[in-house]
Amino acid sequence: MSTAPEQVVITDVLLRDGLQNEPAVLPLVDKLRLAYGLLEAGLSSLEIGSFVNPRKVPQLADTDRLVARLRPGESALLHTLVFNERGARRAIGAGARDVRLTVSASDGHSRANAGVPRDEALERLLPAVDVLRAHRVRLEATIATAFVCPFDGETDPRTVVELARRLAGCGIRVLHLADTIGAASPWHIRRTVTAVRDALPELPLGLHLHNTYGMASANVWEALRLGVRRFDAALGGIGGCPFAPGAAGNLGTDDLVNLCHHAGIATGVDVRRLTALREELRVLLGHRLDSALSAVPTAPVALRTVVAPADVR
Fold it and tell me: What is the DSSP secondary structure assignment for residue 207, as one 8-state letter?
């Protein structure tokens, strides 16, 4: 990699993807404390919940209350996930201002996650888009299983490009490609990111990476080489998809910050505050965390907050 980017934007997904696979349901007061802790550590973008059926994902049943209590300010983006019109109306009622539409690239995962094949799931999103845009909600989108599906195998980049075009037509500001089960390699990242960028060169791209096979950091490095500047991660590397067999934890926010700072890439994150919050998270969950740095009792040596990240709104 010849030149490092000056800065990246990290969206911490602890309060959504991180908690949705936990056996315990954290009370609202603990979620609020974690959210404020992440913001105080310098994260300017959080994913804080999903407007899904609370019976299917009870860990996120209080998303409405969490959004209403946190209310986005000028300095932070607070994202929630929406899959259909009902979820869109719940998001609006709670006061959400930043929503991610979510659809799977593969039929197998779409059936497990949304209950219908990919194209039908996308059609379900269209009324939600109309409702959200009518209320001036800012839209992003995530394509799940963009690289590998636990049911259908490798995902054809042409399928991802087709979905990306249709989502771009919905007026999204950013498109995130998700390695839902953590099975992608740098080759997968290069192949699919290049295909989407060639088709939609003006659409900003982000990556949502899991670390099931220990490849997340390598995939970040490849993405940086390709010009990607937005990454999802979860403090402590916890998380996974309850509808994707074999999916392990997310790329750890602490590990991602560590990688970036060693490379001289700015994140705006205070390492010591993040380390202290990670210990609070470990105590709340009652088990060891999955990030590499969670095994280290103190902040990484000689690292610092480089500079504040860009305003991506």
Answer: E
Residues designated catalytic: 241
245: helix, coil or strand? coil
In a domain, 275, yes or no: yes
The residue that leads in pLDDT, 306 or 177, is 177
Asked if the structure places residue 310 within a domain, the reply is no
Q: Report, in this order, helix, strand and coil percent for the chain, each rounded to 5.
A: 40, 20, 40
Strands in 87-217 per DSSP E: 98-104, 138-144, 148-149, 153-154, 175-179, 205-209
Q: What is the pTM of this model?
A: 0.92
> What is the CATH classification number for the domain harbouring 159?
3.20.20.70
Whether 122 contacts 91, CB under 8 Å: no
H helix count then E strand count, the chain? 10, 10
* Cβ atoms 208, 268 nearer than 8 A: no
pLDDT digits (tens, 9 = 90+) for 95-106: 999 999 999 999
